[in-house]
Please model this.
Amino acid sequence: MTPRAHNPAIRCLLAVVLAGVLFVSACTETNSTRTLVIRQEPPLLDTFTLAPAEGASTPPGSLRVFDAAITTEDGLTGNLLGMLITADFPQPASGEELEERIGTLIFQFGDDQLVVTGGTIYPLVNAEMQTGLTQVRAVTGGTGTYLGATGQVTTGRNDDGSYTHTFELVE
Model:
């Protein structure tokens, strides 16, 4: 059997294709998620009315701030600072008993922080979420251990007034 002569153009083409496949393989990111569950003790609440509106219990523009102790499943303790701004009320004709709030929450563990923000819906006359319902907000960043954190957190209020925050962090 005599060796076949290979066309240099085909060799070059094969080399380029192989290099491209290796490059794409090296650059392809595989995102995985990490779950972090945090328990929050019942918060201390206060409401500041920034723009009073006649007849509203917490008028649009009201600022609700809160502070609560938090603990991870691993026993790490910290503090949650948060604020909610009442953004909108339902139209009286709709009969809905809900209001929309914009919130920012900061989960602090010493120098390590997770920052969360997003819009949520609350019962019209309640300062806190209803039990049995959940809210999902975006994880927008962090510091220290959580530097560059992204993902989402699902929050639910427990029967005892505490909250459970389940984070899905994209790594």
